[in-house]
Amino acid sequence: MTWTDARTRLMLRELLAVVLGLALAGCGGGSSSTKLAPPGAQFTAAGQNVIPITLDHGPPGAAGIFNVPYVSVTLCRPGTSICQTIDHVLLDTGSYGLRIIEARLLDPALGLPLSTAPGGNPAGECGQFFSGYLWGGVRLADVKLGGDTALSLPIQIGGDTDPRFATVPTDCAGLGANLGSVRAFGANGVLGIGVLNEDCGAACVTQAISATYYACSAVTCTASTMPLASQVANPIAALGANNNGALVVLPAVPSGGVSSLGGSLITGIDTQPNNQLTTETVYAADASGNFSTTYRGDTLTASFIDSGSNVLYFTDASLTRCPISTLFYCPPAPITLSAVNTSTVNHASGTVNFTIEAVPWDTNPYSNVIAVSVAAQLAFPGHTRSFDWGLPFFFGRTVAFGIDGRVTARHGAGPFWAW
Amino acid sequence: MNPRVPPGWAAPCTRALMATIARAFMLARLPCLGLALAAIPLMARAELGGRAEPFASGSMVAVSRSVDQRGNYAIRTTLLGSGTRITEYVAVSTRAKADSASSTEPVVFALAWSGPFLPDLKVLLGAHFDSLAAESGTRSRAGQSGITVNQPEVVIRSGGRMRAFAGRAWLPTALPPGFDVHDLD
Questions:
Q1: Which residue has the higher pLDDT, A2 or A318?
Q2: What does DSSP assign to residue B82?
């Protein structure tokens, strides 16, 4: 098996590292086979519109984490100074909106008010992820990112304790596994800040779409329409300033990987001295947030950049697979590959050279690597049109994204990616 | 293991097969919008490995049908009101029955979906949904973009991200001759 193996190995290696550490302490000696990765670089941008990004082992309860960028987000009851900071929130350019994975993470004193569906009943939501669903209520919070605040923003609370959300609707449960736990999700929350505004968009304004929004009474939850302003939406777009996009800056990761890494999320584009785009090329994205990637002669028209994907995902039958984590690629030595990205909208085009290496834990069960440039085969070999530029794409780059419909001073309106 | 499609099945049986599939698709012409749905709580029954019965999940805006060049299977594409497209691949499959006799009936042997929202996979995958849920329950969402189920009886690929999902599923032992899973699109 594949993904599961990678995770199991990861958990195993952590256990072994502890055991080995104890053994070594007892023996008073070291071993060349226990080579550990060094700490990585820390980059911190200057400015009030900066949110630190941390790569570490994740929150308590998460396991087998690597290449996952976390931020801290502060929530306040709207219009008050009653606030709470949630750590280990996944920075995800592949979703839209802020979600807290488990209601127990919130201090009851925070008392976030319920958001309502048309008709006045509390709004429930089925957050859709490829492997399952996050069920819970929609509540309003003032969301602070750096020095700016999104006022009274609808956010989702997984496992909301209001009794009207007690039962997962049947069509929501039909999406897959219940992701409403820190362990299942690998994070305390997810900060969805990609190139689009809402998690549903115009479709939910006019139709009650199955397994999206609900109006929840004391009796049952019923599929509901939801106005744009009431949808769980991209927090950056709702900030009082620096709200037209953002930059993600992560340091380079050397071959062999590192045991830690720090970077910056800088909100706004062309609004402050620290978020000016200079040498970057702007790739206008299509309505799904995609662009085209040409790799080894294949043109993949539904390609995207996803900080929530922990490796690069693409299909290349010529690359050696890992012996244990068989969906991952394990080139005998680090290999530099090349692809051409092209916007199907503004036709901007550029070559990306990227280096991947074998996953460390396949050969070194004691690996402490938390950030490494690795790749895996896509979930749909042979019949996908995607190149998923996951987190390793961000290493050593400034990656900017402009939000749908938001204008920048010098680089037009989103949705776009720039690097 | 279920037997593969019997030898010599394709050519002599094509006409009868197409008639059978056509009948199955006639059923699909039942009212599937608005009040009719609200009044009659139809379940979507065209599930993987099940008969090609009326598909009625959510509001449909378009249904199209086609047959592959050699007449080995039929394709029904349904565009849901949400913008998500579901493609069902239907062929006559020989099913072993408990009394050791066999019967033929149109069976959905493969599925593809794509669009801004996930379809109700519990309905579409039928008995195989549990395999998907079990697999996705074993890993973190953080850091991943797809899920794979590889079992002798079913293969499922599901992936994507918010507002852009896609997936495929097929029954390896029920594929008609000449069908290439790479064509699932």
A1: A318
A2: T
